[in-house]
Amino acid sequence: MRVGLTVFGVSCVGKGTLLEFVSRLSGKAIISSDITDTDLENVDLESLVANVTERYQNLDGKVLGKKELAEILAGMTVKKEPVQIEVIRSEGFRPAAKDIEPEFRARDVKVERTSSSVSDFVDYFQDRFARQREILRSYGNGFTGVVGSIENIKQYMDGREIAAVGMVYDKIVTAKGNVMITLEDESGTTKVLFMKPSRKVKDEQNELLDSASKLMKDDVIAVKGKMWNSFIIASRLLWPDIPLHQQAKVEEDVAIALVSDVHVGHKLFMEKQFGKFLEWINGGVDNRKDLAAKIKYMVVAGDLVDGIGIYPEQDKELAIDDIYKQYSVFFDFMESIPDYIEVFIIPGNHDAVQRAEPQPKVGNGFLKDFKRDNVHMMTNPCYLNLHGVKILAYHGTSLDSVIRSVPGCTYGTPTDAMKEILKRRHLSPIYGGNIVVPSKNDALVINEVPDILHMGHIHKNGYDAYHGTLLINSGTWQGRTGYQIKQGHVPSPCLLPVYEAQSGKIDVMDFNGL
Fold first, then answer.
1. CATH fold label, 140-238
2. What's the pLDDT at 15?
3. What distance in Å separates the CA atoms of residue 376 and residue 365, rounded to the nearest whole number?
């Protein structure tokens, strides 16, 4: 039996480009039977899907006919000018946050420049290992008496119980379902075996194998077990992890708005919704004015603009193809933020800074004449203390590699990957997963335990808690792109998380329908 894809009643089996076009828009629009492969000749499919998605973003099930397709193709040849949004401030809006004095401390991480020589890489890994080893040793947890070096382990007889700290060099799963890793430190390497338990076992043994299955290259861990034929047969595994802690208590009733992935300059930047958000914090929208009145701080976690040359043929998807103009429009939006709200902005992988992390703050050359005392440009990552609430803001580029590598992590639930990052006390745990500067001091080690870990990057909102730290991924202000449709990724645009510091509550404002 041949299984075909139906286009408004007509089978499309074997129709090449048209088949791909229909598949990419499945669930979004119905493609009329009068459209043929000929209509799609010499058309960039990624750009076309993005444009159709923009047109039909709130019209699921609508029919796309030959006439509508021609209009969209014609529009793709015309430069889309950015929509000028006029933000209306409500004269009767009396925000309580305006009468509260700001209390904040902001710390950039050190962004070092190196030659990327062999010695730079050695220094980087030695610093990372040393700092995470100290975290592990500080916990104790039955790991007292840790062997000074892995090389010393080889002196012990079979059956001797030992403990060691090392960095994962590699990992394999054996034919019997056991997990075996190579653990290394400055002195040498050893094999560690995590045995697959039999059916009738304690939960702890299953949990041990589950934890071992999530190990990634370059993880720094502590293991406890017994020596056997020069192997360590593991009985425990300890991550650097963050300790259990209580959320900060804040006396004053202030709120923090968390934003990311604005992507000014892309054709799918949802400027009307973003403008409605700005109107809301100025009291111009009736919905939840009480919450808008509490906002004292705003944190923007990167990808302020879509950038230039970030991926192949990006120019076909841009509404603004000048990087300076993109930033000009973004900072025009920032002009609309009330001056009593302190704004902290970090870059992301689409911004005009070095791609390697940690990233320096967006330079003054892109700010031009923009200057506001309440707007603070920061590094990616950075540490903030806002009215006593400690926030670690990181764009989140490493989420891609963590989701690819750790079983159970998906793009649909970004907080699962964020938990794995906190377990490892490192913002980019897989070296090479994204570009990292091999500096003498690893600025991506999480040396301060935050009350909130705020990320973006994957365009999907997520909220959870882990060991007392709130995990918030603040989504995006960009519509679903053709690439995301192809990957099956469904973003959650225009959902604004707002953290109420006094109650510890997270509110989510939906600007899609306002």
1. OB fold (Dihydrolipoamide Acetyltransferase, E2P) (2.40.50)
2. 40
3. 15
10 Å CB burial of residue 364 (0-12, 13-18, 19+) is exposed
Q: What is the pLDDT of residues 29-49, one digit of tens each?
A: 778 778 887 887 767 666 677
Residues 6+ positions from 501 with CB-CB distance below 8 Å: 248, 250, 252, 253, 254, 255, 256, 386, 387, 388, 389
**510 φ/ψ angles, rounded to the nearest 5 degrees:** -100, 110
Position of tokens 């870990």? 453
Distance in angstroms (rounded) separating the CA atoms of residues 5 and 398? 37
Give me 136's structure tokens.
Answer: 């592990």
Residue 462 near residue 418 (C-beta atoms within 8 A): yes
207-236 pLDDT, tens digit each: 899 999 999 999 999 999 988 887 899 999
Mention the CATH class of domain 105-113+244-510: alpha beta
Q: In what order do the strands lie in the sheet with 382-386?
A: 104-108, 382-386, 389-393, 452-455, 469-474, 461-466
Burial grade of 94 (CB within 10 A; 0-12, 13-18, 19 or more):
exposed
Task: Supply the pTM of this predicted model.
Answer: 0.84
Amino acid residing at 391? I
Residues 6+ apart with CB under 8 A from 448: 383, 390, 392
Question: Does residue 444 contact residue 426 with C-beta atoms inside 8 Å?
Answer: yes
Strand partners, 357: 436
Q: Rounded to 5 degrees, what are φ and ψ at 275?
A: -65, -35
The model's pLDDT over 92-138, given as tens digits with 9 standing for 90+, comes to 788 999 999 999 999 999 998 877 788 888 899 999 999 999 998 88
Q: What is the pLDDT of residues 55-70, one digit of tens each?
A: 665 555 577 788 888 8
Rounded Cα gap, residues 213 and 339, in angstroms:
49
pLDDT level of residue 286 (50, 70, 90 thresholds): confident
Sign (positive or negative) of CA dihedral 207, 212, 216, 219: positive
CA–CA gap between residue 478 and residue 305 (Å, rounded): 10
The arithmetic mean of pLDDT across residues 71-86, rounded, is 63
Domain ranges of the chain: 6-76, 105-113+244-510, 140-238
Q: Which residue has the tokens 């730290």?
A: 469
